[in-house]
Write a structure and sequence with these properties.
By secondary structure, this protein is α+β, with helices and mostly antiparallel strands. The chain has 2 domains: 118 residues, Aminotransferase class 4, branched-chain amino acid transferase, N-terminal domain (D-amino Acid Aminotransferase, Chain A, domain 1, 2-Layer Sandwich); 159 residues, D-amino Acid Aminotransferase, subunit A, domain 2 (D-amino Acid Aminotransferase, Chain A, domain 2), CATH 3.20.10.10. 26% of the residues lie in helices and 26% in strands. The strands form 2 sheets. Strands 8, 9, 10, 11, 12, 13, 14, 15 and 16 form a 9-stranded mixed beta sheet that branches. Strands 1, 2, 3, 4, 5, 6, 7 and 17 form an 8-stranded antiparallel beta sheet that branches. Strand 8, helix 4 and strand 9 form a beta-alpha-beta unit. It is globular. Bound molecules: 4'-deoxy-4'-aminopyridoxal-5'-phosphate. 4'-deoxy-4'-aminopyridoxal-5'-phosphate binds next to helix 5 and strand 14. The site of 4'-deoxy-4'-aminopyridoxal-5'-phosphate has 14 residues, from helix 5 and strand 14.
Length: 296
């Protein structure tokens, strides 16, 4: 599909991609002053729509943005975008910016938040690496501590993540892993991390990372599978010596990690439990979600 021809929602209007333009005075463009979500639709259903909308509105609240749409209106507009584009499988990107304002930083200069919704086809985030697993490198850019800026806020300022990704590219890895100032494992540039050891899953606590919706799903699935799950600080050593490691995210889904900083994880191939979760997650995405083409 040609992006120029896709219908994009901006502040009450549906515009073709080529006409969907934002003011250069929009604070999201000037300062990264906004919040966003990344959602997927599978097989004609929007997966975990309520959870993503909830997080979007909490992110907005935490940075003093009052969205001009109610949550229900936002969901309806998302569905309408998907319908207009005739999409059944899609990536959905709602953005709430503080809007157009004066040049200064003072948010009082911006009167009306801008809402943009992009819906588009998007294949596998890590391409054909899901069978083989990915290589990860620890990023030199430390995770931002929660007392500096909460990692729970999905804000439009991904520069530390992007330069971490550039670093991963530079060293020939597929993804970068960010570490806290204290030296504990935090998260990838767009995904959460899990390790598996002796039938126990471990993932960093949710107050130092984005509380991923896929992360929550995996925690639930693990409990249902009778596996132990713990949310606790993880060292790089624990990660290097784990039986299995995988990443989770809406865009990334579940992807096995087979190498970190040049160290082979387990046998250097996707692990049994990781593969089981990949299958369980895929099954879930096929049957759950808000239907796009039925009345809502
Ligand atoms: N961490 C970061 C930094 C992310 O950008 C994402 C993607 N939203 C995640 C984790 C995974 O979150 P989710 O499973 O909700 O997509």
């Amino acid at each position: 599909m040609n992006e120029d021809e896709l219908w994009v929602y901006i502040d009450g209007n549906y515009l073709r991609g080529k006409d969907a333009k934002i003011s250069v005075f929009d604070h999201c463009f000037l300062y990264g002053d906004g919040v966003f979500e990344g959602i997927r639709a599978y097989n004609g259903r929007v997966f975990k729509l309520d959870e993503h909308i909830e997080r979007l509105y909490n992110s907005a609240k935490a940075i003093f943005i009052e969205p001009p749409l109610t949550k229900e209106e936002m969901k309806k507009v998302i569905i309408e975008c998907l319908r207009k584009n005739g999409l059944k499988d899609a990536y959905i990107r709602p953005i709430i910016s503080r809007g157009t304002g004066t040049m200064g930083l003072d948010p009082r200069g911006c009167r009306n938040p801008t809402v943009v919704i992009i819906t588009m086809p998007w294949g596998k985030y890590y391409g054909d690496l899901y069978d083989k697993g990915i290589k990860v490198a620890t990023s030199p850019y430390r995770a931002i501590p929660p007392d500096c800026f909460s990692p729970s806020i999905k804000a439009c300022q991904y520069l530390p993540n992007i330069i971490s990704k550039a670093f991963a590219n530079f060293v020939g890895a597929d993804e970068a892993l960010r570490i806290t100032k204290e030296g504990f494992v935090a998260e990838g540039t767009g995904d959460n991390i899990f390790l598996v050891n002796n039938n126990t899953l471990k993932t960093p606590p949710s107050n130092i990372v984005l509380k991923g919706i896929t992360r929550e799903i995996v925690i639930d699935m693990a409990k249902k599978e009778g596996l132990k799950v713990s949310e606790e600080n993880i060292t790089l050593y624990e990660l290097y010596t784990a039986d299995e490691v995988f990443l989770t995210g809406t865009a990334a889904e579940i992807v096995p990690v087979v190498e970190i900083d040049g160290i082979k994880i387990g046998k250097g191939v996707p692990g049994k439990i990781t593969k089981r979760f990949m299958k369980l997650y895929e099954d879930l995405t096929k049957k759950e979600g808000v239907p796009i083409y039925e009345e809502v």
